[in-house]
Design brief:
metal ion binding, flavoprotein, 34 strands, FAD/NAD(P)-binding domain, Rieske Iron-sulfur Protein, Rieske_2Fe-2S_sf, alpha/beta, 5-stranded parallel beta sheet, 30% strand, 495 residues, 2 iron, 2 sulfur cluster binding, globular
Length: 495
């Protein structure tokens, strides 16, 4: 049990974050808000309710009394063994095109009292799962990373239609049409179709050993194909480099190669930031991630790009680079970004940007009445960017979108208010990023680059707009909480 004192009030809560089990005693407490030190989930200390994702469950609360200067906590033994509260009050949707944003939307609708029909339709064969684990624990089965079991959705009265791909939407008739020829009317619609890789789509052919990493099946396939083989990863972003590290660890005797046409090993990062500086600062040190991966057998080909794949019978055997090098390739993995999955909306009146992302406002409302959108498929106004639009492809943001969309389906007038929080791990080193560093003009570095424990502040207009860290997890949660509360940190304070 975690005992919290907020001024003269005591609260007793579950001690572990229900997301990944982080010890909340190492978290950040501000007023009645307790933020997880690992991934930024936030809980109300009075009620245990979720205040910020990525956690999907609340934490348990226990009765506290104070007598003669002593604090007494009363709890049932069986409750102490539960990881989180699993009871949910009765929330809305109609066909929700599925992902974590749709899942949170459906749950929120039930929790807020909506009793009508909710349908989630997905072209996948699984219930929504933790996609962040696909590049971190590639040997897991799909069932191991389900965010909710099918039985849970059934108990909540949420219909899940798997392998049901939407091909068009008639907004006038309020009807979704599916690949199998069927259709479904809706009263309110959430589009949460995510994004996809457009890499090497060959009409009428399947390249057997060219993969992306978007489903559990692809993850397992890559791990199986890569063991003891020549692996070529196109792209040296977080996704590409994370796969390099994991595969070099999991797949024995695998020869890894990572290609990047930018000069920086990790150019082209999340949230439109040109380069994730935390890594660039490390590039010239002996203990850099770049060097660590090289020590694991990963070869980097920088300032070049893939121009041709050679092979036969639908199987690639060689990757040809623009600089003239030919690389043997038993497996090719693409990690070069993604495209919003919105092609099925082409020709409709829904507003999209030039990349296909759906435009939404702070209520997650599109330009069409009763149609909402959330997750990777949208571009939305970011408060930390003074309302400028951005697409942020990450789980915590998608969950915040789904929650906000549900409340506005219920006419609650809720505006999106969240601080984007990114996390990953590379070769045992934890990386965290909170805020929006886009357009930063200066940085402040605290800690030791050589010892691989540091915090970097991103400065714009004299104030901190984001923070990144290596092995300093709680500090980034602290910055996220300060930014969430609307407090400003000057460059001088950061220093």
């Amino acid at each position: 049990v975690l005992l919290v004192r907020n001024r003269k009030e005591f609260h007793a809560l579950g001690s572990k974050c229900p997301h990944y089990g982080a010890p909340l005693s190492k978290g950040v407490l501000r007023g009645e808000r307790l933020r997880c030190p690992w991934h930024g989930a936030c809980f109300n200390v009075r009620t245990g309710d979720i205040e910020e994702y990525p956690a999907l469950d609340c934490i348990s609360c226990f009765k506290v009394t104070v007598e003669d200067g002593k604090v007494f906590i009363t709890a049932k033994k069986k409750v102490l063994t539960l990881p989180a509260i699993t009871e949910h009050r009765q929330h809305l949707g109609l066909p929700s095109l599925v992902g974590v944003a749709a899942l949170v939307c459906a749950e929120t609708l039930r929790q807020e009292g909506f009793t009508g029909r909710i349908i989630m339709a997905t072209n996948e064969k699984h219930v929504p799962y933790d996609k962040s684990k696909l590049s971190k624990e590639m040997n897991l089965k799909a069932e191991d990373i389900y965010l909710r079991k099918p039985e849970f959705l059934e108990a909540q009265g949420i219909e899940l239609w798997t392998e049901k791909e939407a091909v068009s939407v008639d907004f006038q008739k309020q009807k979704v049409h599916f690949m199998d020829g069927s259709s479904q009317k809706y009263h309110q619609l959430l589009i949460a179709t995510g994004s996809h890789s457009g890499f090497l789509k060959v009409p009428g052919a399947e390249l057997q050993n060219v993969c992306t990493l978007q489903t559990p099946e692809e993850s397992s396939k890559i791990l199986e194909l890569a063991t003891g083989k020549n692996l070529v990863i196109v792209g040296a972003s977080f996704i590409g480099t994370g796969r390099s590290g994991l595969l070099s660890h999991c797949a024995r005797d695998t020869n890894g190669t990572s290609l990047e046409q930018q000069q920086s090993c990790l150019a082209g990062f999340w949230l439109g930031t040109a380069v994730f500086i935390a890594w660039n600062f490390l590039m010239n040190t002996q203990t850099s991630p770049f060097q660590m991966l090289q020590n694991k057998g990963v070869k980097f080909h920088m300032k070049t790009e893939l121009c041709e794949l050679k092979g036969k019978d639908g199987k690639v055997t060689e990757a040809v680079l623009a600089n003239g090098e030919n690389l043997p390739a038993d497996v090719v993995v693409a990690g070069i970004g993604s495209t919003p999955s919105s092609a099925f909306l082409k020709g409709t009146s829904i507003a999209r940007d030039d990349k296909g992302a759906i435009l939404v406002n702070l209520h997650m409302q599109t330009n069409i009445p009763n149609v909402f959108a959330a997750g990777d498929v949208v571009t939305f106004p970011v408060a930390l960017l003074d309302g400028d639009r951005s697409s942020i492809h990450h789980q915590q943001v998608a969950e915040a979108h789904g929650h906000c969309a549900a409340l506005n389906m219920l006419k609650r007038g809720k505006e999106l208010h969240t601080v984007p929080y990114f996390w990953t791990t590379l070769l045992g080193k934890s990386i965290r990023y909170a805020g929006c560093g886009k357009g930063y003009t200066d940085t402040v570095v605290k800690g030791s680059l050589e010892q691989q424990k540091f915090l970097i502040f991103y400065i714009r207009d004299g104030h901190v707009t984001a923070a990144a860290s290596l092995n300093c997890d709680p500090m980034v949660s602290l910055i996220a909480e300060v930014l969430y509360l609307g407090k400003q940190i000057s460059k001088e304070e950061a220093e």
